[in-house]
Amino acid sequence: MKKSFSSQFVIKAAAAVSAITFVMCANSAEPIKITLAHWADAQAVVYTAKYVLETKLQ
Predict the structure, then answer these.
(1) Quick check: pTM over 0.90?
(2) DSSP state letter for 1
(3) What are φ and ψ of residue 37, in 5° steps?
(4) Which first-to-last residue range defines the signal peptide (predicted)?
């Protein structure tokens, strides 16, 4: 129960970060480059959180 809740939360948080980042970058001078950089950061956060959750809750 706790594991599925945590995973859902991480996924929703990552999606929110990605959406906010995309909207912010759509108004910037170099939207594509900046969006890709932030997307990579968001992915890194997701994978790190996922790894921590999976290792801690086993």
Answers:
(1) no
(2) -
(3) -65, -45
(4) 1-28
